[in-house]
Amino acid sequence: MKHEVSTTVDAQADVVWDAVRDVEKWSEWTPTVDEIRVHGGGPIKVGAVATVRQPKQPAREWTVTELVDGRSFTWTSKGPGLRFSANHTVTTTEGTTHVELTFSVAGPLAPLASVLAGKAIRWAVDTEAASLKKWCERTSR
Questions:
Q1: How many degrees, rounded to 5, is the angle at CA 32 between CA 39 and CA 62?
Q2: Which residues of 82-117 are buried (b: 16+ CB within 10 A; e: fewer)?
Q3: InterPro entries per the record (predicted)?
């Protein structure tokens, strides 16, 4: 299962990137996150591990696997029979800031997870994109 959402944000790319990269503050702008704590604190970097607590979900450890500062990061998590990957990308084209969020589920239990949780996953990714847009546009004015 893979779900992607793209949105245009009426804010400077650095404002959007700051919101995306500061994962410990996501609970301030999206209802899909109760708390994120980066182990050891500080900004995320490749290899950083964060505990993510979301409504109606068990706490899950996410590890940053890729980071292009100012542009994107990917983190991954594992569960029994499942591998999760979430990518967050901020780009600028002709002065317009774009955000793309991608969430993927793989592994032997991915088809079952898609049936049981696909709707909730799509809602969460869509909500995060809309919430990020609203937050960045409000804070950049």
A1: 30
A2: bebbbbbbbeeeeeebebebbbbbeeeebeebeeee
A3: Polyketide_cyclase/dehydratase, START-like_dom_sf
Residue 135, CB half-sphere, CA atoms under 13 Å: how many? Answer: 19
Task: State residue 43's pLDDT score.
Answer: 87
The SS3 of residue 2 is strand
Helices 13-21 and 110-139, interaxial angle, to 10°? 130
Residue 3 to residue 117: CA distance in whole angstroms: 12
Domain 2-139 has CATH 3.30.530.20: yes
Locate the domains of the chain by residue range: 2-139
Please tell me the distance from the alpha carbon of residue 75 to that of residue 84, in angstroms, as a whole number. Answer: 8
* Amino acid, res. 5: V
- The mean predicted confidence, pLDDT, of the chain is 96
Q: Sign of the C-alpha dihedral, residues 129, 134, 138, 141?
A: positive
Distances in Å between the Cα of 15 and the Cα atoms of 2, 87, 116, 122 are 27, 18, 35, 25
Residues 22 and 1: their CA atoms lie apart, in Å, by 27
Q: What is the pTM of this model?
A: 0.94
